[in-house]
Amino acid sequence: MFIGRISIGLIVLIWSTLSFAQKGNPKKRFIVTFKEQAESLSAQSFSVSESTKEVVFAESKEVVLESFDNVKSVDEDIFLTVDSTANDSRYDEQWALGLAQGAIEIEEAWDMTKGDASVVVAVIDTGILAHEDLSSKVLPGYDFISDSNISRDGNGRDSDPTDEGDYLNPSDSCSNGSFKSSSWHGTHVSGIIAAKSNNGIGVAGVNWNSKILPVRALGKCGGLTSDIADAVKWAAGVSVSGVPANANPANVINLSLGGSGPCTSVMQDAINSARAKGAVVVVAAGNNSDNLDVNPYTPANCQGVIVVGSNNQLGQKSYFSNYGSSVDLLAPGGGTGGSILSLGNQGSTTATFDTYSYQSGTSMAAPFVSGVASLILSVNKGLFPDQVEKILQDTTSSFATGSNCTDGCGSGILNARLAIIEALETTPDETYSETDPLSAGGGEESKVLNVSEDKKGGICGTIDTSGGNGGGKGPLSMVLFVVLGLIIQMKKSSKLIGGE
Ligand SMILES: [Ca+2]
Ligand SMILES: [Ca+2]
Ligand SMILES: [Ca+2]
Questions:
Q1: Residue 386 falls in the annotated catalytic set
Q2: Which of 193, 290, 384, 497 could form a cystine bridge with 371, CB 3.0-4.6 A?
Q3: Which residues contact 63 (CB under 8 A, 6 or more apart)?
Q4: CA 453 – CA 288 distance, rounded (Å)
Q5: Could you check whether the bond before residue 26 is cis, i.e. omega within 30 degrees of 0?
Q6: Which one, of 167, 196, 160, lies nearest residue 183 by Cα?
């Protein structure tokens, strides 16, 4: 055998083992054809006879030529495909996925991965509806709402995570005296992450193949910290008393919810235990236009979470988005330029039939990050939560020139393409860790913070009870809300599936 071929074999082995994933390698792939010399050096033996081929990865053709002897030819092994796009009927309304200043470059990421079916994203939210553009991607979830006054399904915890509607009647204590339609928030959030892409109808999700684990914890007026914390633990595969084990532990947990107050020890413990199972926890920054360094907003002020603020289509911070040193990055959430299209339902109280709706808020921004986190883990499942956070932060796009976001908006705007490239080049490292900046109500401060005064707390804006034994199951029963800035029901929102 030729020395060249032996060294190639060795190099291919080393390179493919150490540096490169099998899929979507960012370095170029070359087919090297070698000259095959005859056994005996007769006068005619210098003619080239049978040739052999090898595949190598390298920066350039020149590098390959310099590295090996007896090379007959080097050709780049080009991957031929159409550029990734999606044929969903309303795909052109999904500005957040494209190349606009405030968008995430998802098509370029899809050229490298469309997601792995073994990756699971938990959506801890209002529950889920059986939407035509999502259902096949939904795993069996759970209803963690312990209070039947909040759950609307007539009971406490059970195995059915169906969204029963979070509408409010004027007589409801948290309604501010006016009727409010159901948001179908959990279905909207889930659709951003994993609506069925390229099926010709509706919208495309960030991840074409990974699964949604619906965990219901928010109902009428919000949800209790004790229920949400148990939902976080269960989602990650941690055992929760009285609840069957989760057969599909989540790799990513999306929390598009929050409320004013400290990071409780109950919630921090749940996050810590989920992280110990390897789960990436993504949290919305909230929609109060507040600086989180001085305004306590939870669970964004807990440690070990990826805090996501919102940017608009122009690549600026959305006017409603909270900001501060704990915000890790921004992702599309609407505001000036357009809201976020995803899955909805026509029913204003209980569910009727499938629609698509525009909503805006950091609730919409967080699932873009969760979706890209699931793509990162699809190409490199061994990565640890802090590594995923670092990749997401390292690879952001810059804000628009003259942006209002000079401080407290994290490293920039989510960029799926760059995130996948860095994920492919990152080696799993259990020892890598990051410490989140402390924001108001985080860390030790949570033990002394007075949360009785509430100014701003999401839709309903109040903390139900705090401290001591305030009526719920946990030591601190705080009501958290969906982080939804505006529900913009544009004319397009009530279009039916296939109606276009
Ligand atoms: Ca129930
Ligand atoms: Ca679709
Ligand atoms: Ca963080």
A1: no
A2: 193
A3: none
A4: 15
A5: no
A6: 167
Express each pLDDT in 295-349 by its tens digit. Answer: 999 999 999 999 999 999 999 999 999 999 999 999 999 998 899 999 999 999 9
pLDDT, tens only, 12-62 = 333 333 333 333 445 788 888 888 654 444 444 444 445 677 888 888 888
Among 302, 128, 277, which Cα is nearest to 225's?
A: 302
Per residue in 349-395, pLDDT tens? Answer: 999 999 999 999 999 999 999 999 999 999 999 999 999 999 999 99
Tokens of 239: 């055992």
CA of 302 to the centre of ligand 3 (A): 9
d(CA 105, CA 283) in angstroms, rounded, equals 22
**Roughly what angle, to the nearest 10 degrees, separates helices 265-276 and 225-236?**
10
Contact 282, 314 (CB under 8 A): no
Q: What is the pTM of this model?
A: 0.78
Residue count of the chain: 500
Which entry of 185, 318, 342, 446 is annotated as an active-site residue? 185
Q: How far apart are CA 341 and CA 130, in angstroms?
A: 18
Mapping DSSP to helix (H, G, I), strand (E, B) and coil, where does residue 310 land?
Answer: strand
185 is catalytic: yes
- Is residue 148 part of the annotated active site? The answer reads no
- 242: exposed, middle or buried (Cβ count in 10 Å: 0-12, 13-18, 19+): exposed
Half-sphere exposure of 429 (CA within 13 A, CB side): 14
User: What angle is formed at CA 96 by the lines to CA 498 and CA 329, rounded to 5 degrees?
Assistant: 145
Half-sphere exposure of 265 (CA within 13 A, CB side): 9
State the catalytic residue, choosing from 310, 357, 363, 446: 363
- Give the C-alpha separation, 10 to 416, whole Å: 33
CA distances from 421 to 21, 396, 413, 417, 488 (A): 10, 12, 16, 6, 35
Q: Which residues on adjacent β-strands are paired with residue 480? A: 223
Closest CA to 436 of 260, 242, 241, 281: 281
